[in-house]
Amino acid sequence: MRKLYVLLAGLFLLQLQSIAQAPPAGQRPSGAGAPQRPGGPGGPGGQAPAIGHIYGKLVDAKTKQPVEYASVALLRQRDSSVVTGMLSKGNGDFSLENLPFGPYLIRINFMGYTTLFKKVTVSPQAMAQDLGNIRLEPNVKALSEVEVTGQRSAFQMAIDKKVFNVDRNLTSVGGTATDVLKSVPSVNIDIDGNVQVRNSSPNIFVDGKPSTLTLDQIPADAIESVELITNPSARYDAEGMSGIINIVLKKNKKAGFNGQIQGGIGTNDKYNLGGNISARQGKWNVSANYNLNMNRNWGEGVTDRENFATGNTPKSFINQLSDSYGGGKFQFGRIGVDYFMDNRNTLSLSQNIVGGSFKNHDELGSRYFDENKGLTSRNHRITDSKFGFNNYTTTLGYKHLFSEPNKELTADVSMNLSNNNRNGGFTTFPQNLAGEPAGDAYIQSNNGKGNTNFYSFQADYVDPVGKTGKFETGVKGSFRNYESIYDVYEGGQYSDAMSNDYAYKEQIYAAYVNYSNAIKNFGYQVGLRAEQYVYSGAIPSENKIFEPTKAVPGLFPSAYLSYKLPKEQELQLNYSRRVNRPNFFQLVPYRDFSDPLNHREGNPNLTPEYTNSLEFSYMKQWKNHNFLGSLYYRNTNNLISTLNTPISAGNDTLLTTFVNANKNFSYGAELTMKNQIIKGWDITTNVNLYQTELQVRNDKESYNNRGFSWLAKVNSETKLPYNFTLQVTANYQAPAITIPQGSGGGGRGGGGPMGMPPSSAQGTIKGLSSVDLALKKDFLKNKAASVTLALSDVFNTRQFEIDQESMFFSQYMLRKRESRILKLNFSYRFGKMDAQIFKRRNNRSSADGMQMEGGQGGF
């Protein structure tokens, strides 16, 4: 197989290397974007004739195969400024003509190969020079992280982050961001789509910025990659106990005209259709993509609760069975425009538009028993609901590259507008002990709407210091305004007690500084971030206004130490302080009665929780293997915890509230290994072993909950004959204690359709496992088309089970959603690399040149 492409990280590393690598001693480096001077090397007015000709052929040093589309740049030896350049042709040939006399440097670089410099001199005695076959050596350091097989590796590992390339994940094709994250090492997704990293909730970004989109509203086919940063520096937001997950959307910057269309079908009425297209010519790059997802799904569950005897109330039992189905559709559209003002200034504008609607039907049967487990009553509830949403995100960005390498200024502003509406209700039918209708039904209906306006601005400045140092600083501001109205009707009559409206405003102002440097093999980075958080809320219908909470600005330091050992080994020690602020559902001070057995009420007096995170890592690279091992410790103060309390005479109704409790400790070891077993077979294994301890102390409850658990994830990719690729993903989560919602659950709040309260600290989640399979066939010229057949949860084992116990009750819950799904997807890639977009003229010749974007000499 011809090796044409490597992963994005390899490109980035090579570009940094090409910036940092200086020509021979005595030559002053300068960016490739340096201004062109008329004439030849002699400077302005030079009379040397432009008749020189340099040509040759690029080949892979190991395979002897031609290397096409490599960057060949001709630099002046005197100041490294660019004279001309081109891309190598399909057979590896390159030819630079109409060259003035003088000494030059030929710089050759391409993804996955070591940058090569060659000295040449054009003179009357050597006007035409054949450099012969120039052999390009693979960049061993870059290739140790990836497999160069004509496409990007599925995973890239580094000590500070992991990058998961979505286009290599076959099992998530046609799905959503939730399906993508299920395959990402270190990430755990529960049945409700809540995200955990190292048993705690991360902060989720889209294109490096907070978003009001949920994971189910982002199609997998619109995602380029997922970045996992477990211990972010001061440059990043301080929010998120276990770091940051950044979802990077597709934005094609390939030269010429490129695109892709895809579509698929899945069992139980699941469909997806979409595509992307891009065009780049001269100073403009335009890209767009669109995706449509439609699906139906089902769910079922069981709840068994024992209410303990208290005072004059005897023991009682409750059994609930739930059966639900629903579905809907959503559309995702994005368009982006880049304008390259010159080699050092770029303007970018992007617009996302997302919208959809979903319906759900749920039936819940409840039976009540006395202390002798004799049936006393029963009922049947039918719930119908409809939810719709729209989301609009506009981002304007600017980037300026200075003449000094790696010095840059970036700034962007973003506006996110979203709205939603929901309506529905439930009807409860009383039944006799035989399950037959008995009495009048209780009818409750509701409708509501909400909208969020989110604005942010950010500016970052990076300035190299000396040979290895770097200074970074920046500012950021974000503003969120939220309004919600929820109206409830009982028997057609408006219920003031159950209805509510709420509004809040949130502002965060931040500034940071970072400094990094290296002394031989020892590297360090220190940073400090300051964030001012302002929150205020109101209940307009009751004329209640909660005074703004404006605490002393929080300081969030970070420190990184690293030491490089021989044979591609590195040690690193990291520390950071982070914050987790209560969300809207935890703060809103009204009681949710939608589930008769599980009420919920927010607490507007909640305060943020703070986390100290310490991580020690070791990384080793071999030719075909990578290993990353980390030991981590995390403790959280002012823990946000849930509290479940009986509120009815028979102890059959629970009220879930939120309180600031005490502490949460978590420590463990995470091991990630990527192996190339044989050529064409890669396996990535991730194991996380951790111990969690909770201490809850308040005026109502006092308890400890601790336990050891582990998580394992294996991703296997095998290239088979006839352009087939097989992927297998296996997951196992061992039994673990529950994490209170708000301190790592990543929860969305509220009991589910089966009448289940949110997870509290008094429970244990049972172990669960799943296996996903996918088979892909590439065909047509250059593998332009492909068909993928994927089966998720092969053994239908993905379900959620939990045991809970407190001083008032014990409870077992099981929830199962549709997970074994067979999908068939087709995709077709098209486009043409148009080398003419790199054509330029200098004042002395019409030779083919290369537009060196950002002073980095090539793609």
UniProtKB/TrEMBL annotation:
<dbReference type="InterPro" id="IPR041700">
    <property type="entry name" value="OMP_b-brl_3"/>
</dbReference>
<dbReference type="InterPro" id="IPR008969">
    <property type="entry name" value="CarboxyPept-like_regulatory"/>
</dbReference>
<dbReference type="Pfam" id="PF07715">
    <property type="entry name" value="Plug"/>
</dbReference>
<feature type="compositionally biased region" description="Low complexity">
    <location>
        <begin position="28"/>
        <end position="37"/>
    </location>
</feature>
<dbReference type="Pfam" id="PF13715">
    <property type="entry name" value="CarbopepD_reg_2"/>
</dbReference>
<feature type="region of interest" description="Disordered">
    <location>
        <begin position="24"/>
        <end position="47"/>
    </location>
</feature>
<keyword id="KW-0998">Cell outer membrane</keyword>
<protein>
    <submittedName>
        <fullName>TonB-dependent receptor</fullName>
    </submittedName>
</protein>
<dbReference type="InterPro" id="IPR037066">
    <property type="entry name" value="Plug_dom_sf"/>
</dbReference>
<feature type="signal peptide">
    <location>
        <begin position="1"/>
        <end position="22"/>
    </location>
</feature>
<dbReference type="Pfam" id="PF14905">
    <property type="entry name" value="OMP_b-brl_3"/>
</dbReference>
<feature type="domain" description="Outer membrane protein beta-barrel">
    <location>
        <begin position="400"/>
        <end position="739"/>
    </location>
</feature>
<feature type="compositionally biased region" description="Gly residues">
    <location>
        <begin position="742"/>
        <end position="754"/>
    </location>
</feature>
<feature type="domain" description="Outer membrane protein beta-barrel">
    <location>
        <begin position="759"/>
        <end position="828"/>
    </location>
</feature>
<feature type="domain" description="TonB-dependent receptor plug">
    <location>
        <begin position="175"/>
        <end position="244"/>
    </location>
</feature>
<keyword id="KW-0675">Receptor</keyword>
<dbReference type="InterPro" id="IPR036942">
    <property type="entry name" value="Beta-barrel_TonB_sf"/>
</dbReference>
<feature type="region of interest" description="Disordered">
    <location>
        <begin position="742"/>
        <end position="762"/>
    </location>
</feature>
<keyword id="KW-0732">Signal</keyword>
<keyword id="KW-0472">Membrane</keyword>
<dbReference type="InterPro" id="IPR012910">
    <property type="entry name" value="Plug_dom"/>
</dbReference>
